[in-house]
Amino acid sequence: MRPSNVPDTRGLFISFEGIDGGGKSTQMVRLVARLRELGRHVVESAEPGGSRISRRIREVLLDPATPELSPTTEILLYFAARAQNVDELIRPGVASGAIIISDRFTDSTLAYQGSGRGLGEELVRQLDRIACRGVKPDLTLCLDIDLATSAARAKKRDRLEEEPDQFRALVRDAYHRMAAAEPDRFRLIDASGTPDEVEQLVWEAVAPHV
Predict the structure, then answer these.
(1) What 8-state DSSP symbol labels residue 98?
(2) H or E, element range at 48
């Protein structure tokens, strides 16, 4: 049950996307805080992660000690974690009127595995239909930076952050194609400025929806 001071409004699903080093985590924290100050009930999720089961899957996916993980195993694990989040967090949250904010969703798989790993868009779409069953963000905020900035900021904490510039380029290009294909849902946010400047751009994209 929602607290009595939370407005009775429709639920909303927002995702953050972008190549590594774009500041997603910082901006997600700031957006969550702002929305809660407005009295909205916010549920945070992450990919892979979010629910307890999905966090267990994350340990396998991002462990630098598992370089032998094949691209097919990788994509199936991502969708397994996502399916759990859809059932446990996203569908119930939106139905209750909450704002769900997720650090990545299927767009990441399209960019990283579909494009970066070369598995193809159609395979990702097929798995999305099985795992997500039509669930899609209402708004996707892609924090966009150039490849040099991404390489400089990446902390090499997991397998994906250790990928070469060619891989990053394929991922970034895929995000730009998504933005061109779905401009109403998918917004490129210039993340080259200060955190405060980027926060303002994020809020300008979100405010009409809340």
Answers:
(1) P
(2) none
pLDDT digits (tens, 9 = 90+) for 14-53: 999 999 888 999 999 999 999 999 999 999 998 888 889 9
H/E stretch holding 119 = none
Residue 63, token pair as written in the block: 């462990």
Neighbours of 138 (CB within 10 A): 16
Torsion sign across C-alpha atoms 35, 36, 41, 46: positive
Cα angle value 37/179/139 (rounded, 5°): 25
Cα gap 77→79, rounded to integer Å: 5
pTM of the predicted protein model:
0.87
Region at 48 (left for phi over 0; alpha for psi -120 to 50; beta for the rest): beta
Neighbours of 115 (CB within 10 A): 23
The residue extents of the domains of the chain are 12-209
Number of DSSP helices (H) and strands (E) in the chain, helices first: 9, 5
C-alpha 75/C-alpha 169 separation (Å) is 19
Is the domain covering 12-209 a CATH 3.40.50.620 domain?
Answer: no
| Contact present, 195 and 26 (Cβ < 8 Å) | yes
